[in-house]
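Aim 2 progress update. The chain analyzed this quarter is reproduced below.
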Amino acid sequence: MNELILLIPIFLPLAAGIAAAFLPALKRDRALYPFVTVVLLVNAAAVIALACLPETRLTILGAGTKFAIAFQTDGIARLFSVISSLAWLITAVYSYRYMEHEDAHPRFYAFYLIVIGLINALDYSATLITMYLCYEFMTLCSLPLVLHSLTKEAISAGLKYLFYSIAGAMMALFGFFCMYAYANTLDFTPGGVMDSALLAGHEPLFLAGVFAVLIGLCTKAGMFPMHAWLPTAHPIAPAPASAHLSAVITKAGVLCVIRTVFFIAGADRIAGTWVQYTWIILTLITIFMGSMMAYRERGIKKRLAYSTVSQVSYALLGLALLTPEAIVGSLLHVVFHMAAKSALFLCAGSIIFETGKTRTDELRGLGISMPVTFWCWTLAALTLIGIPPTSAFLSKWYLATAALSFAGTAASGLPAVISWLAPVILLVSALLTAGYLLPVTVSGFFPGREFDRTKVTRLDQKRGLTIPVCVFTAAAVLLGIYAEPLIRFLTQISL
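Predicted structure tokens:
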């Protein structure tokens, strides 16, 4: 029974997406929107059911071989599939109203459904070959969401997204080849699958392969130096697609890193090596650089894109530290960033939808005419900054304390400078985050005495836009206040 339920979140959205593309009955919004809603509701219900049921495994092809295509419902799969599917459903409700000023709705929703099916397949992947195939297909099928408008700028952004993704995938494939020769199996196994006897004497090649995988897979997560596609793709894509690029698709890179480091290579084999040190340094560079670029940027969606570059590397930093406390902080930030950044991108989409304004210096006084949108922006901004009791305060606390305590671990070999530098950069990034998010609130609510309030008209009265934003904002705040069950679940996940 569990195996049959596991098929639903993978194959139902794929089949529904194909149907939306080709069935004439679904060419009109009046039929298309209920169809998409029902599919995503069933998908979310199946994912939640799988999260509550005992772990299961389903092999599709190649049983008993290294190249099996198989799916499983372990703790990591449950976490990523639940947050992805819920975010997809909530944003779909928002998109029905937002997409009124966009064309080609059947094409957009066809790929919208196909991509969540592939993301679920990626989340539930039980083997390395399954994960890699789903990763590649997800990249190809998410491309149309980026270049949806088919303008020259959209096509250019889509090609940049594609080229960076392919380059990253090829680097990861090279690394997988380096690790394949020393692996007992390609099934995801907590602690890794490397054979010590086969690996003896080949450690340099193995570490080079792991590093290539990290750089390649972190392309999707926007880590320096493979981050440039994010600030290009986000401003061009429709707001619902931008929200998913930031909140969900970047997490696909994080998931693949988790699977590779903790379930294939083995964290113990890279702890204390040049790979770990370099990985930590790259995440710290990305955190600071992304925050600084966001602070300097004036385009509202591009500012949020640079923010994503910085914030997703918080999660990568936690993984790079390789300690249980840091890993919990990393997984917490994956969840919290999904809620907060979805809210921010949808707020930006609402502003653009209602006013056509795309720059932060054009938003003076809009908080008076769009109070719901700007209050949601403010609360989501406070979350990303890390102000208690909002959720991201907890994840940043875990990351900072993990970095500090890691310095005292004599066996770690981590240079002491990194242990204090990480909390400092996290603090500086938080200050920069306040510097690029809160001025929008200030100029929106406090435009100055010369602002003519008599001409203000209420704009954010479309419930299709405001309710999803409020849901994400509430999640961003309340997950911090009621975090104990989530923390307990994350500490029980076996890596």
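The radius of gyration is 22 Å. Confidence is low (pLDDT under 50) at residues 408-412. These observations will guide the mutagenesis experiments scheduled for the next reporting period.
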